[in-house]
Automatic annotation (TrEMBL):
Residues annotated as domain FAD-binding PCMH-type: 39-218
Protein's name according to its UniProt entry: FAD-binding protein
Species, as recorded: Paracoccus shanxieyensis
GO BP terms in the entry: respiratory electron transport chain
Cofactors (names): FAD
Domain of life: Bacteria
Length: 469
C-alpha cells in the first residue's frame, strides 16, 4: 500500500543515515537478485544497519507500518531464500561485520552476522584453531546466511552441519525485539534451546545478528587419497571401512560418478591424478594430529583396502599441494556454469545405499521428460548428500520446471530430501511436501504464525501460510 510504504520510508530515513538507506537507482544490482532462476524484483529500499540495535530498529519500523522485510547476507544461496520481494525492504547485513572476541579458554569466537566465512576461518587459524565449516563461496558468503540456511559443506561427516558449531545466538524477532543469548557453554540445558528455531529457518522467524561459534583444534596434518572404484557397492563398502579404520580422522568422503569425472577432467580440464577410467572416483581426506604418526597410518590403511580388492587404483597425497590437486577435481563443479552453459543445480539427500540406483532412475526420468537431457552426479555421500546438475542440451532457455519435477519426483520415490544443505527458499517450495508430512508443515505454519503474526519477515519463502496455497 503506497501510503504505508511512504510513511515507512520516511520513518527509516529519519532513523538512519544516507549510507545505510539506499533507494531507487542507488540500490546495488547484487541486492536485486540472489539466483538467476528468478526474475529481478524492485524492492522498496535496502537498509544496511551496522549494529544489532539498528537491525532491531529496522524491524520495529517496518512492523509498525506493515511492510515486509527480506534479510540478505552474502547472496550466494541457490534456492532464492534472499530473493527480493516487490515493495519490501531488503535488510542487508553486509555492514554488520567483524569478529568481536576470540576466547581461547572456551575455544569460541563471537562474530557479527555479516562477517564473511573466510574471514572467520583465517582468524581461527591465526589463533591456532580451526573452523570446520567450509564452502566454495567462503570468500563471499556471510556467517549469518550460513546459519540461516544451516549450511553443510565438505566436512559434515566429521563435524556436522553449521548448527553443530553454534553455542550462542543473538537475533531480532519480527516485531523488533532483540534477543541476546551469547552462551559459551557446551552444556546448557536451561529451558528450550531457542537458537535452533532460527538456525535453518532461512530468515522467516528472525534475523540473526551475532553468534558464538565453537572452534576446533587445528589439525596437525591432512592426508588425502583419490581412488578409482569398480562399483558403487565397493564405494559403500569403502565408506564403512573408512569409518572403522580411520575413525575420527575421517573428515571428507567425496564421490564422483564417471559422468562428472569426464566433465571435470575433459571439459573443465583439471588434471587427473589417476590413469585409466573407472565408474566411480572417491576422494578421502583425513585430518590427524601428527604427520609422523598419522601419515603412515593413513597410507597403510589405503594400501590395505587396495589389497582387499575394494580400490582399483589410488593416488595418495605426499604434500599439501597434492591434497589441493585432489580437491581440484571435486571443486571443478564451480566451472560448470561457464563451461557447460545454463543448467539447473540440485542439492538433495538420500540414503547412502540407494544413491547409484537413484542416479540411474533420475537419468532415465530426465531422458523421458526433457529433450536431449544431460546430467552428472557427485557429492559428499559420506553424509548422505548428493549433488547433480541437469540440462537440456541446445536449449536457449532451460526447461526448469520439467527438470525440477523429474529430479524431485525421483527423490521422493527413493525416500530422500529435496534439500540437504541449501535450504528451500522459493525454488524448492513447491516440492517441500515431498519431504515433509502434512503434520510437519502444519506445525511449521503454527510456529511462523506465533512468532510472526503479521507475516512480514521473508514472506512466501520456504512454505505458504495457507495449506495448499
Amino acid at each position: 500500500m503506497p501510503a504505508r510504504s511512504d510513511a515507512c520510508l520516511a520513518a527509516l530515513a529519519a532513523a538512519f543515515p544516507p549510507a545505510a538507506l539506499l533507494q531507487g537507482a542507488d540500490i546495488p544490482a547484487r541486492n536485486l537478485q540472489d539466483t538467476s532462476y528468478l526474475p529481478t524484483e524492485a524492492p522498496l529500499a535496502v537498509l544496511r544497519p551496522d549494529t544489532p540495535e539498528g537491525v532491531a530498529e529496522v524491524m520495529r519500523i517496518c512492523a509498525a507500518h506493515g511492510v515486509a522485510v527480506v534479510p540478505q547476507g552474502g547472496l550466494t544461496g541457490l534456492a532464492g531464500g534472499a530473493h527480493p520481494i516487490a515493495g519490501a525492504v531488503m535488510l542487508s547485513l553486509e555492514r554488520l561485520a567483524g569478529i568481536e572476541e576470540i576466547d581461547p579458554a572456551a575455544a569460541t569466537m563471537t562474530v557479527r552476522a555479516g562477517t564473511p566465512l573466510e574471514v572467520i576461518q583465517r582468524a581461527a587459524d591465526d589463533a591456532g584453531f580451526f573452523v570446520a565449516l567450509d564452502l566454495g563461496a567462503r570468500g563471499s558468503c556471510q556467517i549469518g546466511g550460513n546459519l540461516g540456511t544451516n549450511a553443510g559443506g565438505n566436512r559434515v561427516i566429521r563435524y556436522g552441519m553449521a548448527r553443530e558449531m553454534v553455542l550462542g545466538l543473538e537475533y531480532v524477532l519480527p516485531d523488533g525485539t532483540l534477543v541476546t543469548s551469547l552462551n559459551k557453554m557446551i552444556k546448557n540445558n536451561a529451558g528450550y534451546d531457542l537458537k535452533q528455531l532460527f538456525i535453518g529457518s532461512e530468515g522467516t522467524l528472525g534475523v540473526i545478528t551475532r553468534a558464538v561459534l565453537r572452534m576446533q583444534p587445528k589439525p596437525g596434518c591432512v592426508n588425502a587419497a583419490l581412488c578409482g572404484m569398480d562399483s558403487y557397492g565397493d564405494v559403500v563398502a569403502l565408506l564403512g571401512q573408512a569409518r572403522r579404520g580411520l575413525g575420527p580422522m575421517l573428515s571428507a568422503f567425496e564421490v564422483m560418478w564417471a559422468d562428472y569425472w569426464h566433465e571435470a577432467t575433459v571439459t573443465v580440464g583439471v588434471r587427473s591424478p589417476l590413469g585409466g577410467a573407472h565408474p566411480f572416483y572417491v576422494l578421502i581426506e583425513a585430518q590427524g594430529l601428527s604427520e609422523d604418526i598419522d601419515g603412515p597410518r593413513f597410507q597403510s590403511w589405503i594400501e590395505s583396502q587396495f589389497e582387499a580388492g575394494l580400490i582399483a587404483d589410488a593416488a595418495i597425497s605426499q604434500s599439501m599441494a597434492d591434497v589441493g590437486a585432489f580437491w581440484a577435481t571435486r571443486d571443478a563443479c564451480s566451472e560448470f556454469g561457464s563451461r557447460l552453459g545454463p543448467h539447473v543445480a540440485f542439492d538433495v539427500g538420500l540414503p547412502v545405499a540407494v544413491m547409484d540406483d537413484f542416479a540411474q532412475a533420475c537419468k532415465a526420468r530426465l531422458a523421458d521428460r526433457v529433450p536431449d537431457a544431460f546430467s552428472v552426479y557427485y557429492g559428499h555421500i559420506g553424509d548422505g548428500n548428493l549433488h547433480l546438475i541437469a540440462l537440456s542440451k541446445g536449449a536457449q532457455v532451460q526447461p526448469m520446471t520439467q527438470i525440477s519435477a523429474a529430479v524431485y519426483e525421483t527423490v521422493r520415490d527413493f525416500g530422500g530430501t529435496v534439500s540437504a544443505e541449501h535450504g528451500i527458499g522459493l525454488l524448492k517450495k513447491p516440492y517441500l511436501g515431498y519431504t515433509r508430512t502434512p503434520q510437519e508443515l502444519a506445525l511449521m505454519r503454527r510456529l511462523k504464525a506465533a512468532i510472526d503474526p503479521q507475516g512480514i519477515l521473508n514472506p512466501g519463502k520456504v512454505f505458504d501460510m495457507e495449506e495448499g496455497a
